[in-house]
Amino acid sequence: MYMSLSMLFFSVCSRLPNVPHSYVSENTKKVEYREGDVIHFTCETGYISGPTLRYICTNTGWENPVGCGKPQPLSDGDTKISTKRQYSHGERVEYICQNYYKMEGTPYKTCENGKWTGQMRCLKPCTVNREDMNKHNIQFRYVSDDKLYSEHNDVIEFICSRGRRVGSLEMRQTCIEGVMHLPTCQ
């Protein structure tokens, strides 16, 4: 017997899941279902739905994916909008970092069958102030501020307030995860 690949996809989800006292919602009802298709069940009159009545057609048949609770907090960041107590499979949450912190990774975490996926972190900025510069006898080359915040990987250029550079550190320094090595002049 010959069976085409397209027939295989249809046959995997040809039988609908048995969900007592419910029917497939009109907006997700189809004649044939393929992998990735989603169906929703609506309860019959007088019955209350459980936690989820959503099924996804997979290569092994219908699956009822599990939702997620609140997503984990992000150190030095937050979610872009208020979080809910419960999320459905496939929903995602967007994160942002605090001012001057730089995001590394994707800004989204996605609920995938009961677990949050997506990796990100907020990289610390560097702070250079007048007191630190006075200790090293330096000043900013292009600004006259007393304090400067710079994001991860930003470059700040310094000049000697008086005297000459001492040591091997260049006058251009890069902020690396909240650390900036200051050159010294004498």
TrEMBL record:
Keywords on record: Disulfide bond, Signal, Sushi
Domain Sushi as annotated: residue spans: 66-124
Annotated S-S bridges: C68-C111
Organism name: Haplochromis burtoni (Burton's mouthbrooder)
Signal peptide start and end residues: 1-15
GO biological process, one term: complement activation
Stated name of the protein: Sushi domain-containing protein
GO terms under cellular component: extracellular space
GO terms assigned for molecular function: complement component C3b binding
Coiled-coil boundaries: none
Short name of one Pfam family: Sushi
